[in-house]
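Is this the right way to post structure tokens for a design question? Let me know if I should format differently. Anyway, here goes:
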């Protein structure tokens, strides 16, 4: 093959015609060799079981699912638990898988390597379909185990599948029960915290009774009412004091009049009056005659006064009359009673005023402390509301967890159901002889094409005009066909014209 020119499709077809057997011989021999090699390898059998993932039978609006993680993630976790040493050792002992000088760890590692769990796509396996409302795109999964003996593969596959189902049921029940117990503990703690906040709030209400935010308006109304009462009480005191002052002045006048009237009826007063009249009579007699009206009137007054004095001096003192004469007149006593009433009114009003002032100071203090008390009260109520909300949320979650646990005990939640048990494999899964033959065919084609390419690269023959131009780097002027006799397939000679390169001439 001339390498210093561009090859055309005719060149490739010519190479294929020339080297067809170089390609076909390895392509025919290699599949037979690959097929024979497959018989030299130890056969392995794979047993497969299909498990259906059934969705929750009860609506999720009524019962919250116990697990929300992906199905394959949960299956992977279950696989790790099932393939632990403690779970696999009973299978090894029961089936007698530990033979010869193999250690237990080697046998367990071999089992782990040969176990395969794969998801099943919807409608890819008969009988496995995604149900309406199913919350996962994985309606099922397959469990496969590969072993040199078909029965061992079936038995181990069935054992591992059964352990997966049991472990799933056990883990879901434990999760539901554990969730319920955890929430119960959280509820107890939340209840203690709520009771503590309730006690703090109750103590605060008792300590600041009447000063709470809801009492602020009422305190202002009461304070305004107390101020009004204080003003009215002050007016009452002022009125009572004015009335008492007026009554005291009136009493003083009445006492003066009464004392003056009492002084005129006493013996000493009468004697003084008698002496004055006698002196007045002597003066009148010195100036007038005995028949003068003034002298006559003065004598009559002296006689009347003398008679009155004699009566007073001759009369025996009567205790009752004396006590009556010594007692004050009714109008004076009434005035004293009025003064006493006014004093009582003033005393009562003064005491009331003191109480009102104390109450006003109390409510003024409450009003002034309202902002700080309100802030503390809001903090306590906010903490209490938070604890109440936490308690209510935990209580609702516990009720949901209890319903979920009941659903799991009644197997109403998501379940793994064995759809197709593991069967005894009849054909080996390895080696796949058709695959080996196909691989041999591919390898043979590659080898044949490589050899053909090597032959073509080594061949320097000139076969056409393009080869001549490429080799000599000169244009070809003319070419003459080769005329000769050839034998056909029947052995007869025929004439054929084939182009052969003649002579080239440089222009």
């Amino acid at each position: 093959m001339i390498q210093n020119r561009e090859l055309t499709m005719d060149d490739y077809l010519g190479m294929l015609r020339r080297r067809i057997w170089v390609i076909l011989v390895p392509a025919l021999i290699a599949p037979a060799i690959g097929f024979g090699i497959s018989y030299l390898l130890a056969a392995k059998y794979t047993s497969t079981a299909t498990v259906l993932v059934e969705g929750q039978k009860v609506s999720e609006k009524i019962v919250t699912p116990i697990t929300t993680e992906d199905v394959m993630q949960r299956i992977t976790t279950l696989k790790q638990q099932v393939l632990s040493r403690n779970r696999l050792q009973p299978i090894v002992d029961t089936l007698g898988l530990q033979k010869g000088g193999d250690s237990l760890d080697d046998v367990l590692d071999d089992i782990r390597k040969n176990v395969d769990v794969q998801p099943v796509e919807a409608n890819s396996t008969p009988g496995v379909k995604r149900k309406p409302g199913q919350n996962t795109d994985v309606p099922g999964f397959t469990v496969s185990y590969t072993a040199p003996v078909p029965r061992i593969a079936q038995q181990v596959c069935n054992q591992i599948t059964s352990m997966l189902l049991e472990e799933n049921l056990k883990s879901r029940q434990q999760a539901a029960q554990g969730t319920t117990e955890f929430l119960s503990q959280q509820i107890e703690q939340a209840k203690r915290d709520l009771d503590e906040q309730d006690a703090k709030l109750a103590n605060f209400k008792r300590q600041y009774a009447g000063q709470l935010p809801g009492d602020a308006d009422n305190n202002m109304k009461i304070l305004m009412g107390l101020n009004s009462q204080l003003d009215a009480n002050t007016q009452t005191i002022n009125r009572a004091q004015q009335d008492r002052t007026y009554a005291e002045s009136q009493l003083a006048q009445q006492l003066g009049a009464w004392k003056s009237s009492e002084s005129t009826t006493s013996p000493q007063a009468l004697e003084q009056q008698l002496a004055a009249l006698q002196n007045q009579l002597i003066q009148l007699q010195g100036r007038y005659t005995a028949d003068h009206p003034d002298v006559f009137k003065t004598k009559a007054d002296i006689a009347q006064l003398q008679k009155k004095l004699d009566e007073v001096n001759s009369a025996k003192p009567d205790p009752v009359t004396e006590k009556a004469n010594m007692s004050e007149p009714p109008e004076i006593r009434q005035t004293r009673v009025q003064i006493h009433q006014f004093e009582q009114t003033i005393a009562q009003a003064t005491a009331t005023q003191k109480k009102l002032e104390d109450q006003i100071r109390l409510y003024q203090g409450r009003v002034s402390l309202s902002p700080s008390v309100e802030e503390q009260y809001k903090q306590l109520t906010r903490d209490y509301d938070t604890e109440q909300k936490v308690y209510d949320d935990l209580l609702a979650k516990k009720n949901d967890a209890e319903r979920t646990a009941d659903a799991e005990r009644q197997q109403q939640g998501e379940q793994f159901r064995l759809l197709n048990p593991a069967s005894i494999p009849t054909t080996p899964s390895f080696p796949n002889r058709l695959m080996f033959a196909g691989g041999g065919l591919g390898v043979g084609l590659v080898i044949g094409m490589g050899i053909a390419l090597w032959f073509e690269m080594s061949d320097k023959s000139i076969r056409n005009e393009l080869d001549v131009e490429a080799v000599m780097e000169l244009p070809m002027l003319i070419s003459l066909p080769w005329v000769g006799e050839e034998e056909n397939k029947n052995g007869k000679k025929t004439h054929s014209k084939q182009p052969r390169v003649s002579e080239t001439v440089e222009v």
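Format looks fine. Someone answered above. Worth noting: Residues 71 and 138 are 7 Å apart (CA to CA). Residues 48-187+410-420 form one domain.
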